[in-house]
Design brief:
The chain has two domains: 2-245, P-loop containing nucleotide triphosphate hydrolases (Rossmann fold), CATH 3.40.50.300; 250-318, ACT-like. Chain A, domain 2 (Alpha-Beta Plaits). The two termini are 20 Å apart. Strand 11 and strand 12 (285-290) form a beta hairpin. Strands 5-6-7-3-8-9 form a six-stranded mixed sheet, with helices on both faces. Strands 11-12-10-13 form a four-stranded antiparallel sheet, covered by helices on one side. The longest helix is centred in the middle third of the chain and has 18 residues, at 189-206. It has helices at 21-30, 63-70, 92-95, 115-126, 130-144, 159-171, 189-206, 217-223, 241-248, 264-270, 296-303, 321-331; strands at residues 2-17, 33-48, 52-57, 78-83, 99-103, 177-181, 209-213, 226-231, 234-240, 252-258, 277-282, 285-290, 311-318, 336-338, 341-343. With 346 residues, it is an alpha/beta fold.
Length: 346
């Protein structure tokens, strides 16, 4: 079952083109000219129920515009949408009862009243029964440790406290689909970890479908098995995070320190059947690049235990997701040439 289905979706905005000078300003009063800007340009994807999918891209790539169309805030210029069995902008009243939304830089809580009062108002907005509301609220408050915050006005909460309350507000009506737009922006590492663990538990226990947009790729690594990457309104990659690392990762770099001299030739001969690349500054220090398709343990097994090799220190460094995504955006494509041909995005 598909929770979200998108077919050839586009959103084009008309942006006024200003003419310079006083004469140009007068002309603009009576005859305006516009440029068309494609914020989202013919994208298609589907997300199965129960999946956590990362939706990433640089500023201006089209992430937030997509989320606004998926939540019914914006009407698409072209294409088809189906979210939880509804067309968001056509069936908004029924549709919103099935989704939860958290915008990291905007609040759905009332600023000057207590948190619990905001929750009560949202209960009425979503038409949740008193019994279901109490059960769900107790569960969320306990899980996110909000007991001491419920009576405070929202304006007196720290950013981390407010974001935990925003999550509760978005989940009070037990939605099957949740959209998270930068939910951990500006938070410290402890609060980020708490929110990530909560989202994983929610997905595991309730089968909640989550579409997550973020600039923090640690969120993606912690939560998502799949990632959709946008660039200038187009999808340039849609597939598994592991596949992305395999295709674009430079492998694992292993640095070895020796207690006695170990010539580079000796290391190369021991691993000649593994197709790894060795470099060395001197006979006491060497580095090997292990391709993604090999296990580091296979390389180390060839070296550790050799009577003439005394290893005093080992350091293992993997290519991070941040580095991989940076490489992709520098090239403008997630298509990568390999020795065997071209590897295209999934």
């Amino acid at each position: 079952m598909k929770a979200i289905e998108v077919e050839h979706l586009s959103k084009i905005f008309k942006v006024q083109k200003s003419r310079g000078g006083l004469k140009g300003a007068l002309q603009d009063l009576f005859s305006r000219q516009y440029n068309e800007v494609a914020a989202v340009n013919d994208i298609s994807f589907s997300i199965p129920a129960g999946e956590i999918c990362g939706y990433i891209g640089e500023n201006g790539a089209g992430k937030s515009t997509t989320i606004k169309m998926l939540t019914g805030i914006l009407v698409p210029t072209a294409g088809k949408l189906n979210v939880g069995g509804y067309v968001p902008h056509e069936e908004r009243e029924k549709f919103v009862k099935n989704i939860g939304v958290v915008f990291g830089q905007r609040s759905q809580l009332w600023w000057d009243i207590g948190v619990i009062e905001s929750f009560g108002l949202l209960r009425k907005v979503y038409g949740v029964s008193e019994q279901d509301y109490k059960k769900r609220l107790d569960e969320l408050v306990q899980r996110l440790d909000l007991g001491d915050l419920l009576s405070r006005p929202v304006r007196k909460l720290s950013l981390g406290q407010r974001m935990r309350c925003e999550l509760v507000a978005a989940l009070l009506h037990n939605p099957s689909i949740v959209f998270l737009d930068e939910p951990t922006i500006g938070l410290d590492i402890i609060v980020k970890t708490e929110i990530r663990e909560f989202l994983k538990d929610m997905n595991r226990q309730h089968g909640t479908t989550i579409l997550l947009t973020t600039h923090d790729l640690q969120d993606i690594e912690a939560l998502c098995s799949r990632v959709i990457m946008l660039d200038e309104g187009r999808i340039i990659y849609d597939g598994g995070l592991d596949t992305l690392k395999t295709r674009w990762g430079q492998g694992t770099r292993v640095t070895l320190q020796f207690g006695t001299a170990c010539p580079l030739g000796r290391l190369q001969s021991l691993t000649s059947d593994l197709h790894v690349s060795w470099t060395a500054d001197n006979d006491l220090h060497a580095e090997v690049l292990v391709p993604a398709e090999l296990n580091v343990s296979d390389v180390l097994a060839k070296i550790v235990g050799q009577p003439d090799i005394a290893i005093t220190d080992i350091k293992i460094t993997e290519t991070t997701t941040d580095e991989i995504v940076r490489q992709i955006y520098q090239t403008g494509s997630a298509t990568k040439e390999t020795q065997g041909g071209t590897v295209s995005h999934a």
